[in-house]
Amino acid sequence: MQKKIKGIISTRQIFMDGKEILPGPSQKVYNHSPDGFMWGYGGSGPAQLALALLLEVTSKAEALHYYQDFKWQVVSKWPQDDFEDTIDIEAWIMAQ
């Protein structure tokens, strides 16, 4: 299922289909980035974001298995600016 992802760089907020995704739940699974989310490179903020997005659409086990690849293949490619993207995360997982 297609998900619309929107990022606002000035506040480092992320929205999935209009719902704000907060870092707290993913930080309880694995705390890569106490400062929260970021995107556009391969660091800890993008890892936190990748994990959070996958946790929204799949199981904890699958999210933990795939989030580093998702970070490199998707999150690191988003511009370090405001952005909007549409991605079928479940299809992405199936293609791995």
Structural class: alpha+beta
SSE arrangement, N to C: EEEHHHEH
> How far apart, in Å, are the first and last alpha carbons?
16 Å
Number of helices: 4
**How many separate domains?**
1
- Average pLDDT confidence is 97
Strand content: 15-25%
Shape summary: globular
Strand order of the largest sheet: 3-2-1-4
Rg from C-alpha positions? 12 Å
Total beta strand runs: 4
* Helix content range: 40-55%
How are the SSEs placed, and which strands pair?
Blueprint lengths: L1 E7 L4 E4 L2 E3 L1 H7 L14 H14 L2 H14 L9 E6 H6 L2
Antiparallel strand pairs: 1-2, 1-4, 2-3
Helix pairs in contact: 1-2, 2-3
Textual characterization of the structure:
The chain has 96 residues and is an alpha+beta fold. It has helices at 23-29, 44-57, 60-73, 89-94; strands at 2-8, 13-16, 19-21, 83-88. A hairpin with a 2-residue loop joins strand 2 (13-16) and strand 3. Helix 1 packs across helix 2 (44-57). The longest helix has 14 residues, at 44-57. The chain is globular, with a radius of gyration of 12 Å. The model has no long low-confidence stretch (mean pLDDT 97).
